[in-house]
Amino acid sequence: MSYELIGISVLWMFLFGYIIIASIDFGAGFFNAYSVLTNKQHIISNIIQRYLSPVWEVTNVFLVFFFVGIVGFFPSTAYFYGTILLVPASISVVLLAIRGSYYAFSTYGKLKSNFWTYLYGFSGLFIPASLSIVLTISEGGFVYIEDSRIILDYLTLFTSPLTWSIVILSLTSVLYISAVFLTWYASVAKDEPATELMRKYALSWSLPAILTATGIIVELRMHNPEHFARLVDLWWMFLISFVLFLITTRLIWLRRSYGLAFHVLVFQFLIAFFAYGISHYPYLLYPHLTITEGFTSEAMAIALIIAFVAGFCLLIPSVLLILRLFLLNKDYIQGKIK
Amino acid sequence: MDNEQAVLYSRMLTELTLTFHIIYATVGVGIPLLIFIAQWLGIKRQDEHYILLARRWTRGYIITVAVGVVTGTAIGLQLNLLWPTFMELAGNAIALPLFMETFAFFFEAIFLGIYLYTWDRFEDQRKHMLILIPVAIGASCSAIFITMVNSFMNSPQGFEIANGNLINVQPILAMFNPSMPTKVAHVLATAYMTSAFILASIGAYRMLKGSNHVYHKKALLLTIKVGLVFSIAAAVIGDFAGKYLAEYQPEKLAAMEWHFDTEESASLTLFGILQNGDEVKYSIKIPYALSILAHGTPTAEVIGLDKFPAENIPPLYIHYLFNIMVMIGMGVTFLGLVYLIGKFLKKKFIHRRFFLWLIVASGPLSMIAIEAGWWLAEVGRQPWVLRGILRTEDAATTSDQVDLMLYLFIGLYIVLGLASAIVLVRMFRSNPIERELADRKGGG
Questions:
Q1: Chain B: nearest CA to A84, how far in angstroms?
Q2: What is the value of pTM for the model shown?
Q3: Which Pfam families does the record match to this protein (chain B) (predicted)?
Q4: Chain B contacts of A55, Cβ < 8 Å?
Q5: Domain ranges of chain B
Q6: Which pLDDT score is estimated for B397?
Q7: Pairs from A224-227 (Cβ < 8 Å, separation ≥ 24)
Q8: On the CB side of A338, how many CA atoms lie within 13 Å of its CA?
């Protein structure tokens, strides 16, 4: 396997990790705010707080990891995407900043007010929307080069149906992933009412999520036929993904094995995400930048891979420790220990 | 927007973000060490006051960490958004330390989460203390790696340039560049020093406001001891940094010392005001001092600004920044020394109001010195973004919306700055140490 393929696979994996963890986080914030709005706070707030508190910081790291990694392995992305994304990425940063810090302020600083809960919950929905713009742009057609300046055509971007399809897909999947996870989490906590409520949310977001995902494929056929053709070649991966989707919803419908349901969901998204990624190969920004053009020197690639392996030897035990202490610790989840 | 304006706004936005981030990043690096020391003393001496110190510092620390994390994410992304050409070039050479910095950050984030949520989980406080070690190591390592990136910008090496492309990249050589040792050491020492004096300020302030608890006296003694050790270290390293500059970046040294003409037995210019470009007024000259500072011998030749073309000379106002940094550094070192001598001789004056006010001032002053030092280091590198390789005006984004983004982030930092200050003040005002001690006794 060539170094650039290792690089992009690792980064794609990380982006996937961020999407799952951040989805849970954004969705949890939203459901929390929504429960305050509908006076159901007493049912799910406890569960959500107990999950979010020890990991809110770790979530952010995944994002930083991804963008530092991509600039490391593919320095040219800094030039292309850096120039294009000034406005959308800055807006994401501001939203992430407000969200992250107000979480800490209200949790540790006792800044208790429903206003912050709403701000936290609803800003969480704008972040996936603003970040997913990158996926739209990478499909090509919105960027042109004039006098060796790279320019993003906002008008075409915001009037394209593809843009809005991807935005809606990001919203529905965030809510779906999060609801399935929290159903499982609440059931481990033996919190019946919270489980029931989250199960209802999970089921009601499952259909919109799968419909919008299918919609993207149709949109791509119009927007980028070449990419669409490669997606169709990978039909079997999407089929597996769809079957896994059916298994998850079925399990939740039957109120059985919520843990298994969540894991199947992760695999469903993993397969679809990698199928999408493979079909995008070899472009980082269609048609201006491919992964071979943008790749760093071999010496740096080797150094980065070594750093990566070493870093992981350090991180994996740490992540296992945090899982053992909090997320997989029944006593903690059930509130028996702090 | 033309290129000149884009460069100006990009510089302003980067400066704004860094200036704001550095406040939180500095305490982010230093405070874990102090929390660790307090917790360790508490266990060793079986003294609940130190454990409480660790606990209360941690509670405030988490608020600063939150802002540090989000502004750190902001500067990380902004480097790519505002300086795409620079990041493309530099990404080829210094991706390794950038990457390692995120690992260190990850490591710290994980263990900080664990530390915060296991206060009452372990019977044995020593286990809990062990969790602080990775937090402190992670925090310091982030500073080390990111400073390596910055030092690369001052003394780039580890690659060759052919037709505008970087070839023969040697990542390790790029990391261990000539300015790295002094920069890293100075950043760490001043971060520990500043954090210690900020915590000392808080203790002194509580005493001024009438809390005469022994807890604050213990806090003061501990923080000032740590602050003094690291302020002395910072001064020693600062001297090495001067020698580094004389060797590798003489134009920066000459600009910050207002050393116009190359000469032997050069004298050091303290204070002063610059008029008409090269007329220095109201300054104090210390004979031979600059030669000693630069080369260690009183008669050595020091290169002056006359050796450089005008377009390669950094702005001369960095002299003022240098004075601010050094004066504050010496001031707080002296203050720490007087306090400890006073304490040793059991003199009463160290708990008098005027002296406590001086201690209150030491924390914010140290932070001003940190900011002045960073502005000095960064402006002193102008007009280069990569010294000798890439000029700042060629590195900025070509995007048209930089001014709007500047206003957006000004708004963000005002909100974050005010909110974090309000939250911190409220947190401690509503729960003074006396009450927390009483609560702990009551609750067992």
A1: 7
A2: 0.86
A3: Cyt_bd_oxida_I (PF01654)
A4: 113
A5: 1-179+397-437, 195-248+250-380
A6: 76
A7: A224/A139, A224/A140, A224/A141, A224/A286, A227/A139, A227/A279, A227/A280, A227/A286
A8: 10
User: Which residues of chain A are within 8 Å of residue B152 when distances are taken between CB atoms?
Assistant: none
Q: In terms of DSSP bridges, do strands B268-275 and B263-264 run parallel, antiparallel, or are they unpaired?
A: unpaired
Distance from the Cα of A319 to chain B's closest Cα (Å) equals 7
In tens, the pLDDT along A184-216 reads 888 887 777 778 878 888 887 888 888 888 888
**Residue in A4, A66, A83 to test binding to B, most B beta-carbons within 10 Å:** A83
In order of B197, B205, B259, B340, B353, the CA distances from B347 in angstroms are 21, 20, 44, 10, 14
A275 token code pair: 């199928």
Omega within 30 of 0 (cis) for the link into A193? no
- Per-residue pLDDT of B161-195, as tens digits, reads 877 777 778 888 888 888 889 889 999 999 999 99
Query: According to the model, what pLDDT value does residue B443 have?
Result: 47
Give the separation between CA A20 and CA A62, rounded to whole angstroms: 10
Neighbours of B270 (CB within 10 A): 16
CB pair distance less than 8 Å for A54 and B117: yes
> Using CA atoms, how far apart are residues A254 and A248, in angstroms rounded to an integer?
10
pLDDT single digits (tens) A48-91: 777 776 677 777 778 888 888 888 888 888 888 878 888 888 88
For helices A75-84 and B84-117, what crossing angle results, to 10°? 90
Contacts of A108-117 with C-beta under 8 Å, sequence gap 24+, read A108/B59, A108/B62, A108/B63, A108/B427, A109/B63, A109/B423, A109/B424, A109/B426, A109/B427, A110/B426, A110/B427, A110/B430, A111/B419, A111/B423, A114/A36, A117/A32, A117/A33, A117/A36
Count Cβ atoms within 10 A of the Cβ of residue B74 and give its class: 0-12 exposed, 13-18 middle, 19 or more buried: buried
The partner residues of B386 in beta bridges, in order of sequence, read B390
Residue A335, Ramachandran bin (φ over 0: left; ψ between -120 and 50: alpha; else beta): left
Segments in A74-160 forming alpha helices (H):
75-84, 86-108, 114-138, 154-159
* Chain A residues with beta carbon closer than 8 angstroms to that of B82: 82, 86
Q: How far separated are the first and last CA of chain B, in Å rounded? A: 66
What is the rounded distance in angstroms from the CA atom of residue B128 to the CA atom of residue B142?
Answer: 22
pLDDT digits (tens, 9 = 90+) for B16-31: 999 999 999 999 899 9
